[in-house]
């Protein structure tokens, strides 16, 4: 088996054979028809950060002369951008990877690359489990993928993993910033903007600090310049991304975060009409951030504030850094300051040692908070985390399944109640396009991040990215229904090139 070589911040695994690679494939340079450009397909697993990483990766591959395709089976290059937050994401990825083995054997010029969080965590295990993988790269060297693919076509399977983010100011960091603007974005009118990489928290269940590294914030001026260029291209909505956006800038100032200042600066960019952000940490939701949300009209009236548990003992075991009372106090402060604020959350069921009393407290806090919606998860142990070592306290699957149903009933009841309160209102939406379930229905999204279905006048197509007013006539747990009042603004963006997700 090829070895692993440490080179500075890089771990490189190289396999070189004469005639064949480690999977028994000919290493003839990966030649294809010179007339036809090589095609690529990216399959993305996980969060918005991964989705944006895939957009940036697509931009790098396009810049290297490749052409995107929606058909994975015909692609010359298939890239998996992986997630390791939950075990089912791991299993789904390895299932897809296994399914490609036969295809890869029938097409020796095809290349397969694996990047992202699972690649950062599993490293050489990926190529040990799947010898048909050509390239493995991590979370810190996304833009290296095109070069690694070129090298692998002659050298055989390669692995390159950086063990920490590249500091801003180095040439490679500048390349990363350039990649952000070169990204092949899924939506022409909306863009993700990564403001920080990594996380300095130590939540017991979370693998992110191990695979994304410590917090590294991008300079404010670079971010504002990026948003200004996106606005020039017709983008009207940006979502600021970070593992803990509230702590943005603390590594720059060595003292106080700068997130409130960043919200105001991005809000001042001409052409930007909506600003979203994810995800904040409740312990770092400071008064100055709430004030910036309230005083910057472009910031959407939606706050995603992960609770995880309503039990103080469970929160302490999770190492979350706040109590249920402190969470509710900060939630109340945000709702008091920001008009018509919608609040969503994350909740984990079955954390090791969670008692029935602990879970009852979660139900009570969720009911009191009256969330507009919630992402609910059954605890999934991740190797290398503190919680994974608590195996003697894991709960039976039947217990977590029963608790999950009770929790969903609580959060869906409050979601429906809050949605019914929107009936009779006129909502401004950004048009997203035809509904996936019924193409005759148009969908739009409000500032509160609520999906609204409405029917456009017969024969009229409203372009995605348009702003429109819709009168809400009905409500369900996960969406609103309404009638189009008027289109108030048309989009001004460039041609859309899709990046698929899975």
Descriptive key words:
502 residues; alpha/beta; eight-stranded mixed β-sheet; 34% helix; 22% strand; disordered N terminus
Describe the secondary-structure layout.
Elements: E1 4-7, E2 10-14, E3 39-44, H1 48-63, E4 67-68, E5 77-82, H2 87-106, E6 111-116, H3 117-122, H4 125-129, E7 135-137, H5 145-155, E8 158-162, H6 171-182, E9 190-194, E10 196-197, H7 208-212, E11 216-217, H8 220-232, E12 237-241, H9 250-253, H10 259-267, E13 274-278, H11 287-295, E14 302-304, H12 312-318, H13 324-337, E15 342-349, H14 356-369, E16 373-378, H15 397-420, E17 426-434, E18 442-446, E19 451-455, E20 467-475, E21 480-489
Parallel strand pairs: 3-4, 3-5, 5-6, 6-7, 7-8, 9-12, 12-13, 14-15, 15-16, 19-21
Antiparallel strand pairs: 1-2, 2-8, 10-11, 17-18, 17-20, 18-19, 20-21
Helix pairs in contact: 1-6, 10-11, 14-15
Mind explaining what this structure looks like?
Strands 1-2-8-7-6-5-3-4 form an 8-stranded mixed beta sheet, sandwiched between helices. The protein has a 5-stranded mixed β-barrel with strand order 17-18-19-21-20. The protein is of the alpha/beta class and about 500 residues long. The protein contains 15 helices and 21 strands. The chain starts with a strand and ends in a 13-residue tail after the last strand. The N terminus is likely disordered. The chain is globular, with a radius of gyration of 23 Å.
């Amino acid at each position: 088996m090829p070895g692993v070589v440490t080179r500075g911040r890089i771990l490189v695994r190289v396999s070189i054979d004469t005639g064949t690679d480690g999977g028994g494939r000919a290493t003839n340079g990966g030649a294809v028809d010179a007339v036809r450009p090589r095609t690529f397909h990216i399959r993305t697993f996980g969060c918005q950060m991964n989705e944006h990483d895939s957009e940036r990766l697509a931009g790098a591959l396009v810049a290297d002369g490749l052409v995107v395709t929606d058909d994975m089976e015909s692609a010359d290059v298939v890239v998996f951008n992986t997630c390791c937050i939950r075990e089912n994401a791991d299993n789904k990825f390895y299932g897809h990877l296994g399914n490609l083995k036969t295809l890869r054997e029938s097409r020796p010029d095809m290349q397969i690359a694996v990047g992202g969080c699972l690649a950062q965590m599993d490293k050489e295990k990926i190529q040990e489990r799947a010898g048909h993988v050509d390239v493995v790269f991590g979370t810190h060297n996304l833009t290296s993928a095109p070069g690694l693919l070129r090298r692998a076509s002659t050298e055989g399977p390669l692995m390159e993993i950086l063990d920490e983010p590249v500091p801003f100011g180095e040439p490679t960091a500048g390349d990363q910033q350039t990649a952000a603007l070169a990204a092949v974005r899924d939506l022409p009118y909306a863009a993700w903007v990564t403001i920080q990489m990594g996380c300095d928290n130590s939540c017991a269940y979370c693998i992110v600090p191990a695979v994304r590294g410590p917090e590294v914030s991008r300079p404010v001026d670079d971010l504002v310049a990026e948003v200004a260029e996106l606005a020039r291209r017709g983008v009207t909505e940006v979502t600021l991304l970070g593992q803990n956006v509230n702590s943005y800038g603390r590594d720059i100032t060595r003292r106080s975060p700068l997130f409130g200042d960043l919200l105001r600066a991005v809000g001042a960019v001409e052409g930007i009409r909506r600003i979203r952000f994810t995800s904040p940490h409740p312990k770092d939701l400071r008064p100055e951030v709430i004030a910036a949300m309230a005083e910057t009209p472009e910031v959407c009236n939606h706050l995603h504030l992960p609770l995880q548990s309503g039990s103080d003992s469970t929160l302490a075991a999770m190492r979350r850094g706040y109590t249920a009372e402190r969470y509710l106090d900060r939630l109340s402060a945000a709702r008091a300051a920001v008009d018509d604020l919608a609040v969503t959350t994350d909740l984990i069921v079955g954390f090791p040692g969670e008692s029935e009393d602990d879970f009852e407290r979660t139900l009570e806090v969720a009911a009191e908070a009256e969330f507009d919606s919630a992402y609910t998860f059954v605890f999934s142990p991740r190797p290398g985390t503190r919680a994974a070592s608590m195996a003697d306290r894991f709960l039976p699957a039947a217990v977590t399944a029963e608790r999950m149903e009770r929790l969903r009933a609580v959060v869906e009841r409050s979601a429906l109640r809050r949605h019914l309160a929107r009936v009779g209102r006129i909502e401004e939406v950004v048009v997203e396009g035809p509904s996936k379930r019924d193409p005759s229905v148009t969908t739009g999204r409000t500032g509160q991040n609520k999906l609204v279905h409405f029917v456009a006048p017969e024969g009229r197509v409203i372009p995605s990215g348009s702003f429109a007013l819709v009168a809400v006539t009905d409500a369900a747990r996960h969406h609103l229904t309404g009638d189009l009042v008027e289109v108030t603004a048309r989009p001004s963006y460039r041609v859309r090139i899709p990046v698929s997700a899975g």
